[in-house]
Specification:
- The protein is of the alpha/beta class.
- The protein is about 35% helix and about 15% strand.
- The chain has 37 helices and 34 strands.
């Protein structure tokens, strides 16, 4: 059905044969607020107008957003239909597995399996399967890529089946880069066309950092795999009409301050401003001065500061970036003309635009900083890192510290120069550090840097900070410096282009000599694929309980994420990663202490190595070459990856599941009747599976790292004939729900308050009182048809867009998660899987509930007609028979989420629509 309003706003394109859906034409039909809408909402409005068909998008959806009020109520759902989808493998392969299972279910219903296919273009980049097994050697890249294919052969074979069987998915094979950087440099077309209609690029992706593309003026953000799957199959991405906050950047950055310092500053500031779930739009003279790589660095970390999107409107800087990265000049001209015709070109001003609020940040106030040791929003000025780390050593675990004894603190307090002396004695003059061995147990101290990695899309997409790292390395070589042997160094660029400009400027050779040779092109250390440390070093750390450190240029440092032996991880710019690798410890004040001793015995300070702005500008000129991008994404991408090419594919419209496989199993969502039952029913006499405190991350809920031998998942694999050396990681086994369900809440550092905060995925089963794994407790409760719930504190589910954190929760039988507050993506994922997110009032926290886990729980108000945000009643019955009642709010926020819950989750709902 056509919409009269839509057709009335269709206009000829000024820039090419064809048409657009013109916002000025819509404004002229009685919507005077449209010119004052934030740019990010204007782009969403264009999608509503263009897709207004009377079915998925109604006219009232268009008019409601056209009349958006900066201070209005936020009760309406926006059915946003995106232009395309992007996937990475760790979530994308399970998504393809769900599609394969949906094809089976479609065939069982008498339909055509081929009907289960994308309705919009889909790009998938295999970028999360790489592990840093080899490093600091000339053949590390080749060896790591070979191991990657060997470990993931069955998964990759499945991907090849999907590419041949499911029409509409374009693949970038392993070895080319990180999804978000490839998206920024190549995949994003800027302007799209269907028939004779031109429209802007918009997207959602299965990685929370898909929002990085907003640095280029593209509206896009991260969702869980289950939401992306629904969008891929034609469902709108539903969300509440948002608040839009302007972030006005003023002034200019100081000499020596990097884009990384800026984004860590903003992450700290914006998280404190409580922007969770909000749309941010960057404006101001300071914003205009930022390059697209700088903007993308900021946009990338929207999940860390909590926003749905940190959007930078399209302007001349955006167009310049497209040309500099090898895009066709004519297509860039058309994109600029499109935005001018929509009256949406350039950065808006706060006076001409309606915003819910404005946050002003002076760029001159930003100083060199790091973040950590456990959260990306915990900002530490560089000059305070030494004292900050010492204070964390002394604090209790409950305070976020490490509870180290006074003796340890005294030992750690020895100056960095003593570590520099040790390092100087152990250094060799080898061109490449190929012979590093761990120091003896007596040498390992709190604060020692055992992992130093330039990794992750946040920074490797930014040539300026990458070149700065290379120039610092070059000066370090000239001074005769090398990292001490206990530091595992690595460089995992976000794309092949990074290597092109580092090689062209001669800087990669210096990085190689310091051990920062390329280990692969993918998301490695930042996602926990840091590979093993030397066995002697791991044993020493474990025996002494040492608080070993990682320094990395990534975006996440949640406890236990980077490596099981590393308790403290600090985020920082790539040049600082090199600096701390040279120092070998975070126990150094770079302002007053040397980071190392040179070959002549003299002290070398950070200021001696740091490149000046003029030096960086010169290197940037030498690195700027659009030909690098055309070569990589034209000739190189077409040639493929030999190891990948050798993987055999499988033929057929439906996938031939193998019962014996421990990697790929048919998902249960369409075969288990219990998973298709409505979630909207009262919870009666439920048991508490676990009680968690604040800031529980999706890393805690659904680990992505290695599978421990003594875990329920490890036991399952052994029972199925898998040797411990072949366990691989949870990320690699995401298409085996038996492994993933056992891995849910199995993180070694998750703390269950039912056991006085004891670490690990254990709980107390009631009424027996037995202490068992969370998986075993859930299995026992399922055997007696006992529903279970989880309690948690604030910011539950912060971190990655990890759909298995919700899938595993559902498969453990959890009916509801009762939390003080939820992070955006995980709340949505829970809703999509049929788990009820329920929010406690502001006045009640977990401690106030005084739970010990022995209670039984009821939730009422879920019968009858359910509305988004419906009030519920929580009833807690204690063992002595007493009861207490608390109010709850159902955090199913939109009518679509209510519809999903009625069908047991989004997957069954989507199958019904097909």
């Amino acid at each position: 059905m056509n919409s009269d309003l839509r057709e009335a706003c269709r206009r000829p394109a000024d820039f090419a044969p064809g048409s657009i859906y013109a916002l000025p034409a819509l404004a002229a039909r009685g919507f005077p607020r449209i010119p004052r809408l934030p740019r990010v909402l204007q782009i969403v409005l264009e999608s509503l107008l263009r897709n207004c068909d009377g079915e998925r998008v109604q006219e009232h959806d268009v008019t409601a957003l056209a009349n958006w009020s900066a201070q209005g109520a936020r009760s309406s759902e926006i059915p946003f239909i995106v232009s395309r989808i992007v996937l990475q493998d760790v979530a994308g392969i399970p998504l393809l597995g769900d599609l394969a299972a949906m094809r089976d279910a479609m065939a069982a219903r008498g339909g055509s399996p081929a009907a289960v296919k994308p309705h919009v273009p889909v790009d998938m980049v295999i970028d999360h399967s790489l592990s840093v097994d080899h490093y600091a050697s000339p053949d590390a890249l080749a060896r790591n890529m070979r191991i990657e294919v060997e470990r993931n052969h069955e998964r990759f074979s499945f991907v090849k089946w999907a590419m041949s069987a499911i029409e509409g998915v374009r693949l970038v094979p392993p070895g080319f880069g990180i999804l978000h950087q490839v998206n920024l440099e190549f995949l994003s077309p800027g302007l799209m066309q269907s028939g004779d209609v031109f429209y802007p690029d918009t997207l959602v992706g299965t990685d929370s950092h898909s929002c990085m593309i907003a640095g280029l003026g593209v509206v896009g953000w991260g969702v869980g795999g289950i939401e992306a799957e629904a969008a891929m199959l034609g469902q709108p991405v539903g969300f509440l009409t948002p608040d839009v906050i302007a972030v006005e950047l003023t002034g200019r950055m100081r000499e020596g301050v990097t884009a990384t310092d800026l984004v860590l500053h903003l992450t700290h500031r914006l998280r404190k401003a409580k922007v969770v779930g909000k749309f941010l739009e960057f404006i101001g003279d300071g914003t205009a001065s930022l390059t697209v790589p700088d903007r993308a660095t900021i946009a990338n970390m929207a999940p860390e500061y909590g926003a749905t999107i940190g959007f930078f409107p399209f302007d001349g800087e955006s167009a310049c970036y497209l040309r500099d990265t090898g895009r066709d000049a004519g297509s860039v001209d058309r994109l600029e003309a499109y935005w001018r015709q929509q009256d949406a070109y350039g950065l808006p001003s706060r006076d001409s635009t309606d915003y819910t609020d404005v946050i002003t940040v002076d760029l001159a106030s930003v100083v060199a900083s790091v973040a950590g040791p456990k959260r990306p929003q915990d900002l530490v000025p560089l000059t305070q890192l030494k004292s900050h780390f010492a204070s964390k050593l002394g604090e209790t675990r409950e305070q976020g510290g490490y509870a180290r004894a006074d003796a340890s603190l005294r030992e750690m307090s020895s100056s960095a120069s003593s570590r520099a002396n040790i390092a100087a004695e152990m250094r060799s003059d080898a061109n490449v550090a190929t012979d590093r061995l761990a120091p003896s147990a007596g040498d390992v101290r709190d604060g020692d840097v055992v992992i130093a990695s330039i990794t992750s899309c946040t920074n490797t997409s930014n040539p300026e900070v990458m070149l700065a790292a290379g120039m610092l390395a070059q000066k370090a070589i000239e001074a005769g410096l090398m990292p001490p042997p206990w530091v595992k160094t690595s460089l995992a660029p976000g794309s092949l282009v990074v290597s092109r400009y580092l090689e062209a400027t001669g800087l990669q050779a210096s990085l190689d000599r310091l051990g920062f040779g390329v280990v692969g092109y993918g998301c490695a250390t930042c996602v926990g694929n840091s590979g093993p440390l030397a066995p002697e070093l791991e044993k020493s750390i474990a025996d002494r309980g040492t608080v070993a450190c990682a320094v990395l240029s990534g975006n996440r440092n949640f406890e236990g994420r980077i490596h099981p032996s590393v308790d403290a991880a600090f985020l920082m710019s790539p040049p600082l990663v090199v600096a701390y690798a040279l120092a070998g410890t975070v126990n150094v004040d770079f302002d007053t202490e040397p980071l190392a001793r040179g070959r002549d015995g003299s002290d070398v300070y950070l200021r001696d190595l740091w490149p000046s702005s003029a030096e960086l500008a010169d290197a940037m000129k030498r690195a700027a070459d659009a030909g690098f991008y055309r070569e990589v994404y034209g000739e190189q991408l077409g040639r493929g990856n030999p190891a990948w090419d050798a993987v055999e594919g499988i033929e057929g419209r439906v996938y031939p599941w193998r019962e014996s496989s421990t990697y790929i199993k048919q998902p249960p969502y369409f075969t288990d009747a219990g998973l298709q039952r409505s979630s909207l029913r009262n919870v009666v006499d439920a048991r508490i599976l676990a009680i968690f405190g604040d800031s529980v991350t999706t890393d805690h809920i659904s680990p992505i790292g290695n599978i421990a031998a003594n875990s329920p998942a490890g036991s399952y694999l052994r029972e199925h004939g898998v040797a411990e050396k072949d366990f691989n990681s949870y990320g690699a086994r995401r298409m085996n729900h038996e492994v993933m369900t056992r891995g849910t809440f199995a993180n070694r550092l998750i703390r269950n308050l039912m056991l006085d905060g004891r670490n690990g995925g254990v709980t107390r089963h009631w009424p027996t009182g037995d202490i068992v794994s969370i998986f075993d407790a859930a299995t026992r409760y399922a055997g007696t048809d006992t529903p279970v719930v989880i309690f948690a504190g604030r910011d539950y589910g912060m971190g990655s867009a990890r759909d298995w954190a919700a899938k595993g929760t559902r498969l453990l039988g959890v009916r509801a998660v009762i939390a003080r507050s939820f992070e955006r993506i995980h709340r949505s994922n829970l809703a999509g899987m049929g788990v009820l997110p329920c929010e406690l009032p502001e006045s009640i926290d977990i401690a106030a509930l005084a739970l010990d886990g022995s209670e039984t729980v009821g939730i009422s108000g879920l019968d009858g007609d359910i509305e988004p945000g419906q009030p519920l009643e929580l009833r807690v019955r204690r063992m002595d028979g007493s009861e207490v009642v608390h109010p709850l709010r159902l955090r199913l926020d939109t009518p679509s989420e209510i519809a999903y819950a009625k069908r047991g989750g989004i997957l069954g709902y989507v199958l019904d629509t097909l």
